[in-house]
Inverse folding.
């Protein structure tokens, strides 16, 4: 059958389960005609794509003529595959290796829309490619639950001891004057409109913005940005909606800033990159030499010849996410 395809019109030839057509031969045996035709198939206008379970199952004559090898690996039946590409057949792909110096790897999500386009098993047979949680992850989750339970138990015991040690002293009853017991006519009457206005949020969808909560929502801190930048094309493609994009040093960069509470901050691209490359001065953070009396050691010793000034410079970390 394959010999007939060799004489077909120009175009691509695709062979599934290629090991059934290009079997491994004994050393010294005669090279079959179909293998010899592979040497001049480009002159006939053909390009051959062979799908197999392992390159070791393919005839060595064909492997020597192959100028491209793509290997797919689906870890534990996950919803994505790892795609490795080599210039020549890599015979060690099925030896539980995940890093190949001679190949390039990318992560390819599996689109369920194509699941019905190809039947890899006989109808009625159960598919065995289902996602399996690694045993190490299960053990780690169990250990985390045990440690959390022990910590909760110890915290409860310690809290009980502290409450027992802090016995409150009963306060003596205070006599209330008769005049104070009567309701005061000086208390302002709250109208229905005022009552509703105090409980109506200033910002739609933010209940805490109502005036009645003003005393409870006074700020006790402020957002401190931590920024990172990446030039990885894969990361930029996956996180395009969350990154500020722009050109830097002739390349496309993505940049984002987060507060100390891990909330995303709306910082424009140039400002974000400036904080990544140069840092940001925090005037609320005291110097390391700051003394209790408010005078730094460097200022106290400035009039001596051996005095040396120390400057604390914040460091910005540039995080370039690796290609997954």
């Amino acid at each position: 059958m394959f010999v007939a395809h060799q004489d077909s019109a120009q175009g691509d030839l695709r062979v599934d389960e290629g090991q059934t057509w290009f079997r491994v031969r004994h050393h010294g045996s005669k090279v079959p005609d179909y293998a010899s035709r592979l040497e001049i198939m480009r002159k006939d206008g053909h390009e051959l794509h062979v799908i197999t379970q392992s390159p070791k199952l393919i005839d060595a004559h064909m492997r020597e003529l192959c100028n491209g090898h793509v290997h797919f690996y689906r870890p534990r039946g996950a919803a994505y595959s790892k795609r490795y590409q080599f210039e020549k057949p890599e015979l060690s792909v099925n030896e539980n290796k995940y890093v190949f110096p001679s190949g390039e790897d990318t992560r390819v999500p599996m689109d369920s829309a194509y699941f019905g386009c190809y039947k890899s098993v006989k109808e009625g047979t159960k598919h065995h490619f289902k996602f399996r949680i690694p045993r190490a992850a299960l053990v780690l989750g169990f250990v985390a639950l045990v440690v959390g339970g022990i910590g909760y138990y110890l915290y409860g015991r310690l809290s009980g001891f502290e409450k027992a040690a802090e016995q409150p002293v009963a306060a003596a009853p205070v006599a209330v004057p008769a005049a104070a017991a009567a309701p005061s006519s000086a208390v302002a009457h709250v109208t229905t409109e005022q009552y509703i206005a105090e409980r109506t949020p200033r910002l739609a969808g933010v209940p805490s913005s109502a005036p009645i909560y003003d005393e409870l929502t006074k700020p006790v801190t402020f957002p401190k940005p931590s920024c990172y930048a990446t030039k990885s094309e894969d990361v930029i493609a996956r996180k395009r909606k969350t990154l500020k994009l722009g050109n830097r040093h002739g390349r496309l960069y993505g940049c984002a800033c987060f507060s100390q509470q891990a909330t995303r901050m709306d910082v424009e691209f140039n400002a974000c990159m400036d904080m990544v490359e140069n840092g940001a001065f925090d005037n609320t953070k005291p110097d390391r030499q700051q003394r209790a009396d408010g005078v730094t050691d460097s200022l106290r010793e400035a009039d001596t010849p051996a005095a040396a000034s120390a400057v604390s410079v914040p460091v910005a970390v540039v995080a370039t996410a690796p290609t997954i």
Residues 2-117 form a domain with the Rossmann fold fold (CATH 3.40.50.300).
